[in-house]
Design goal:
The protein is α+β, with helices and mostly antiparallel strands. Helices cover 28% and strands 33% of the residues. The protein contains eight helices and 18 strands. It has a ten-stranded antiparallel beta sheet. An eight-stranded antiparallel beta sheet has the order 11-12-13-14-18-17-16-15, with helices on one face. Strand 7 and strand 8 form a beta hairpin. The protein is elongated. The two termini are 26 Å apart. 28% of the residues are buried.
Length: 434
């Protein structure tokens, strides 16, 4: 979307009858349009950058006010359709739910029976392109029998309009929590079976296409040491012609399901058919050299494209998420360029070693690894120094040591290898500064 299109969209908002527009939208819009008029008299490169920034701000403001206030007039909805991150949104009467949506909602009631005691306070229909990018119903519940004009109720259900597919069910929790997947507390088989059984009941035969990829702790923000429940991340099996997706299920400390959500990934996702499996095997062979204790890795997700990293050159790269067969946890992420050179390698585990791997051992092991991984191209990297660091394990700082190399051909390019206290590699990163 160019700057002229942004101008046009914002000025379309200004033509909507302001008596029917929430004050927050009207005020923010007027200020932004004034800024746009001022910017147009400045030099062109600056104008484009600043205009996009102001436009992004007002779009975010409009989205917040529209969804927060429940304002969804026909006129505004038609204008919203042209905004990149919002799409058309309509507030509707709960009696307007169609048969497909009602059938899905009845299915939700069977698995979340407490919602039957709640009241529907708001129903919104529309497309929000920052979410599932599909037309959907948002059904917001309240414990009190009243209508509301916000998506922040006591519970919320999202349903895909065309198919009736349940996208999410979220019950408001009595605490603010964070999901921690690294080094979670032990999980009983009973709780695992609870999550797996729920998923089967929720999505039926589709559940056969998913496997349990990770288990995390839901920790209270006010007291991180307090575990309020378990989060289960199910991944769709990597297939020849379908891109990755995942489902999150949360079980609280009373062993009740209180959260279900589908997630879909970005446009860089690729399928198994789009991977060169011979190339993948060469990468796996390198990974096994770094982590000899890991066996039978399989690809569970893959992306390809240029990755934007702050102050770094964006290389065309393929990223693989690797899972050890027969285990719940995700093990490794590896990224490599079009020539098969590893750009980054990371293992999803940190062990609690208080003693730091020695500088001499770090240097010797790193130099050997660089030769193993890069072969003839290893001469490009020259060892510079070791660098002490820390990581976190179960709330405690643990010691790390890194070996830093510089490229003899490119002064802006460097390589670092992080070691845990036992000499195991935590990660490898190639960084090329812009």
């Amino acid at each position: 979307m160019n700057d002229k299109q942004i101008d046009q969209i914002l000025r379309e908002f200004s033509r909507v009858d302001k008596q029917n527009v929430p004050e927050c939208i009207s005020k923010g819009l007027d200020e932004t349009l004034a800024q746009l008029d001022n910017i147009q008299h400045k030099d062109k490169p600056r104008r484009v950058k600043r205009k996009v920034g102001y436009a992004a701000s007002v779009v975010a403001l409009i989205a917040f006010c529209v969804l927060g206030s429940g304002f969804v007039s026909q006129t505004m909805a038609e204008v919203l359709q042209e905004v990149p991150v919002i799409g058309p949104i309509y507030k509707v009467d709960k009696n307007e739910l169609d048969a497909t949506a009602k059938k899905s909602l009845n299915h939700v009631y069977k698995l979340f029976p407490e919602l039957k005691n709640y009241h529907i306070g708001l129903v919104v229909k529309g497309t929000r392109k920052h979410g599932y990018n599909t037309e959907q119903w948002d059904i917001v519940f309240t414990k009190e029998n009243k209508e509301i004009n916000t998506l922040d109720g006591d519970a919320r259900v999202e349903i895909e309009a065309a198919t009736g597919r349940i996208l999410s069910v979220r019950q408001k929790k009595e605490f603010s929590g964070t999901i921690v997947y690294s080094n979670p507390s032990p999980t009983s088989e009973q709780v695992i079976r609870k999550a797996e059984s729920f998923l089967k009941q929720m999505i039926g035969n589709e559940s056969q296409d998913y496997f349990l990829r990770d288990i995390g702790d839901v920790c209270e923000d006010a007291n991180p040491a307090e575990i309020a429940g378990k989060s289960f991340l199910f991944f769709k099996k990597f297939s020849a012609d379908e891109r990755s997706s995942s489902i999150t299920v949360e079980v609280d400390r009373e062993n009740n399901i209180n959260y279900f959500e589908r997630s879909f990934y970005d446009a860089l996702e690729i399928t198994a058919n789009e991977l060169n499996m011979q190339e993948v095997q060469l990468i796996l062979d390198k990974v096994y050299k770094v982590y000899p204790d890991v066996k039978e890795l399989e690809v569970v997700r893959a992306t390809r494209g240029k990755e934007n990293v702050v102050n770094a050159v964006a290389h065309e790269r393929t990223a693989l998420w690797l899972h050890e067969k027969g285990k719940h946890r995700l093990v490794i992420q590896v990224k490599f360029d079009t020539s098969g050179n590893i750009l980054s390698l990371y293992r999803y585990s940190t062990k609690g070693f208080e003693k730091r791997f020695s500088d001499q051992d770090t240097k010797e092991k790193a130099i050997a690894l660089v030769k193993e991984l890069y072969g003839e191209k290893s001469n490009e990297y020259e060892f510079v120094r070791t660098r002490a660091g820390t990581s976190t394990y179960k709330g405690k700082d643990v010691a790390l040591n890194a070996a830093v190399f510089k490229s003899v051909n490119n002064p802006k390019k460097s390589l670092s290898i992080d070691f845990q206290g036992d000499g195991a590699v935590l990660g490898i990163t190639v960084f090329e500064e812009k």
